[in-house]
From TrEMBL:
One of its GO terms (cellular component) is endomembrane system. The chain crosses the membrane at residues 442-464. GO terms for molecular function: aspartic-type endopeptidase activity. It comes from Thraustotheca clavata. This is Aspartyl protease family A01B. SUPFAM superfamilies: Acid proteases. GO terms for biological process: proteolysis. It comes from the Eukaryota. It is a single-pass type I membrane protein.
Length: 529
């Protein structure tokens, strides 16, 4: 299903997602141009058609890198993905830019003497890597079934990495390759704009937990009807490797500001990067204590991420606080990305839930696909801004909405985090709490009432019974004694001393007890009458 907007040069695409464990690849220093902090498995991908005749491949949409790369025939050690490797021998239009002609947009890591082909490569700290030669052919983005008209209308000759070797996580990922969308000369959106295929150098990503919608060009009119709030624009800088970097000003948890040691710590050297290619988000590790404190105030033990605690039970989800990222807007004002629990919680194999915002950076951070979900993110690099708004991102509904046949009122059901929790983990979260070791609300109420009754009974007993004089059977210790606890009991101003040295031979209490006894005697005489 493709959506073409008549009279407007723009294209809407359906996004897909493979549900896989969150795995992250951190870039190592190498000969190729640096890309962002992480790339993810299980992220959102779309289809591309390459060559003549067109061959299909799948690409992860990644705003944190600038390379389109995927396996080609002869790729060594490449895994099984959604589609076969691109067979260059079957395309009549493929070309290989050479190092000597300087017609490649890439910085070559190596040029072989025998063919002068431009080779590029990327390595990652956990061991993953790929190597490729630069190729050029007709490329278009589309749906699972080729649309020849769209392949021509929105296609362009484009250079990409024709991968010849993969290792590590690239072998096991579902999608064939990656579609780099950072603000760089190798970005296909900019190439489409320069070729007058689209009217604006703009694209938008609207993720759901299962897929979503990608738009090339200015946001289509139908997108406004899918928005569930006001569109906000954060100022971005793309001067560092084309990354879309926002300036964070504050973080609120449960509506209250947390203490941040410095803005330099929060934003780091490159600010906070919006990276759709990573499954989780990141903040500095120095914020751990503040997150723990804020979550304790909300009524849960502490802030728990995967591997840091055993997670939260379903009955605890209703107490989880909303997190807010306060960022710099276009005119100096604040804009706020609201993150309900349904966005930052993920269910683990043990049936419990952990937060996906990892606190392990030295400085700066990443807004990943987890926090982008159920929002329309509009990337407008020429205006140095990224817009975001809560939205209905379902592609099929978007298609129906454009055709005027949608009748579902999604605003009322999606504006609160409770509805989002239901959508993510089931309605039983808010209706029937589980019995587990962490939460026994009925037991707690009964126990509280029982303790209150005991306390009241003890108080009444103490008031109506005249105490007998007793003699203390503990000996006073010298204040020089080494037992600090005992010394504390002998200090007149110590609260514990006041409790432990209660004097039962007190004239005030004796008078009160005598008056109470007199009232009880008068009451008995009246009853006898």
């Amino acid at each position: 299903m493709l959506s073409v907007l008549h009279g407007v040069s723009a294209l809407e695409l359906q996004l897909h997602r493979h549900q896989a464990p969150a795995t992250h690849r951190r870039l190592a220093n190498g000969s190729f141009e640096a890309v962002p902090l992480t790339l993810g498995i299980g992220t959102h991908y779309t289809w591309a058609y390459v060559g003549n005749p067109p061959q299909r491949t799948s690409l992860i949409v990644d705003t944190g890198s600038n390379v389109m790369a995927f396996p080609c025939t002869g790729c060594q050690g490449c895994g099984n993905h959604t589609d076969n490797p691109f067979d260059t021998s079957l395309s009549s239009t493929v070309e290989y830019p050479t190092c000597s002609t300087s017609k490649t947009a890439f910085r070559c890591s190596m040029c072989l003497k025998e063919d002068d082909l431009c080779q590029i490569s990327q390595m990652y700290t956990e061991g993953s890597s790929w190597k490729a030669v630069v190729a050029e052919d007709q490329v278009s983005l589309g749906e699972s079934v080729l649309n020849n008209e769209l392949h021509t209308s929105f296609g362009t000759r484009f250079q990409f990495g024709c991968q010849k070797q993969e290792t590590g996580l690239f072998i096991t990922q579902t999608a064939n390759g990656i579609l780099g969308l950072s603000n760089h000369g190798t970005n296909i959106v900019r190439k489409l704009y320069n070729g007058k295929k689209i009217d604006d150098n703009i694209f938008s990503l609207c993720f759901t937990k299962n897929g979503g919608t990608m738009a090339l060009g200015a946001p289509p009119p139908s997108s406004e009807r899918r928005r569930l709030g006001a569109l906000q624009f954060a100022r971005v800088s793309t001067e560092h490797n084309g990354w879309y970097a926002v300036t964070m000003r504050e973080i609120r948890i449960g509506g209250k500001l947390i203490d941040i040691p410095s803005m330099r710590l929060l934003n780091g050297a490159n600010n906070v990067i919006i990276d759709s290619g990573t499954t989780t988000s990141y903040l500095p590790k120095a914020l751990r204590d503040e997150f723990d404190r804020a979550f304790k105030v909300a009524g849960v033990k502490k802030y728990m991420t995967e591997g840091n605690g055993n997670g939260y039970s379903k009955s605890q989800l209703t107490r989880m606080p909303t997190i807010e990222y306060v960022m710099e807007g276009m005119d100096g004002e604040d804009v706020v990305l609201t993150i309900p629990p349904a966005l930052y919680l993920k269910k683990g194999d043990n049936g419990r839930y952990s937060a996906t915002i990892a606190l392990d950076e030295q400085a700066g951070g990443v807004i990943g696909a987890d926090l982008m979900t159920n929002h329309d993110f509009i990337f407008d690099p020429d205006m140095n801004r990224v817009g975001f708004v809560l939205a209905n991102c379902n592609y099929k509904l978007a298609k129906q909405d454009e055709e005027g046949i949608i009748s579902v009122d999604v605003e009322d059901t999606s504006s609160s985090w409770e509805a989002a929790v239901i959508a993510e983990v089931g309605a039983e979260v808010l209706t029937k709490p589980e019995n587990d070791d962490d939460d026994y609300p009925i037991v707690n109420i009964v126990a509280g009432v029982f303790i209150a009754v005991l306390f009241l009974g003890a108080f009444v007993y103490a008031v109506v019974r005249k105490p007998t004089k007793t003699k203390s059977d503990w000996a006073q210790l010298s204040v020089e004694d080494d037992d600090d606890e005992a010394n504390e009991l002998m200090v007149p101003n110590s609260p514990r001393a006041k409790i432990e040295t209660y004097d039962t031979d007190d004239a005030f209490f004796d008078t009160q007890l005598d008056e109470a006894a007199g009232l009880e005697h008068e009451k008995t005489e009246l009853e006898q009458l």
